[in-house]
Amino acid sequence: LSSLITCLEPVITIMSVRRVPWVTPNHSRPMANRTRRTRQTRTRMGSDGDFVPSFAGGISPERFAANSLKRMITHAAARIVLKQMEGIAPQTGTGKSADPGAADVNAPHHHTDAERNVANIANRQKLLQDMLTDVPMGADPNEWLLELARKDGLLAVRVAEARKGYCQDGFGWDDVRRLCSEDVDTDNQTLLQAIMQEQYGGSDKQQSAQ
After folding, report:
1. What is the pLDDT of residue 42?
2. Chain-centre distance of CA 164, in angstroms?
3. How far does the signal peptide extend, from start to end residue (predicted)?
4. DSSP secondary structure code for residue 57 in this structure
5. End-to-end Cα spacing for the chain
């Protein structure tokens, strides 16, 4: 029996190593940290078992897409808030405030609270429109929101809350997956047809010319 165990020991060792292919355990760290580390460093595999390399900076394709979506959702949230303010303030047919002095909240002709409220909304509407037009959102939408907060903190909070609500309840996540899948299928078919045309259609033209 001892000789059999001795013969099987290399096999047992190899099987044990294969079961933990990602990281070397560090028993000096808490279990939660080791588990999180294992999840971050494990080899990523696609749905068909292909290796999925990380992008620059070590981020996954999913994280890269999430960052892009967050920037787009932040921009959409700012547009949502802008549209809400347009609906609150009195509007003309051209989309501008019917009050010619609404751009100045401290204008002397704003005698009532309602007038001052309309003027305040008009000011914030103009500020948000200028931010969307003149200030690029860049790679990190939080930097854009911080810049907005330096000018109007409540408006920045409102955009952030609109972003959260749109992300959770308004954005069509299933539609994104469906549309992307459909586009990839369609583009692949178009690409294959173009390749076939280049490879075989071109050969036929050369033979005809000869």
Report:
1. 47
2. 13
3. none
4. G
5. 79
CB–CB of 98/118 below 8 Å? no
Neighbouring C-beta atoms of residue 131, cutoff 10 Å = 21
> How many CB atoms neighbour CB 86 within 10 A?
16
Buried b / exposed e along 7-29 (16+ C-beta atoms within 10 A): eeeeeeeeeeeeeeeeeeeeeee
Q: Does the pLDDT value for residue 131 go beyond 80?
A: yes
Phi-psi region of 13 (alpha: psi -120 to 50; beta: other; left: phi over 0): alpha
- Quote the pLDDT of residue 195: 95
**115 vs 39: CA distance, rounded Å:** 57
Please, is 119 exposed, middle or buried when counting C-beta atoms within 10 Å of its C-beta (0-12, 13-18, 19+)? buried
Neighbours of 128 (CB within 10 A): 22
Identify the three-state secondary structure at position 97: strand
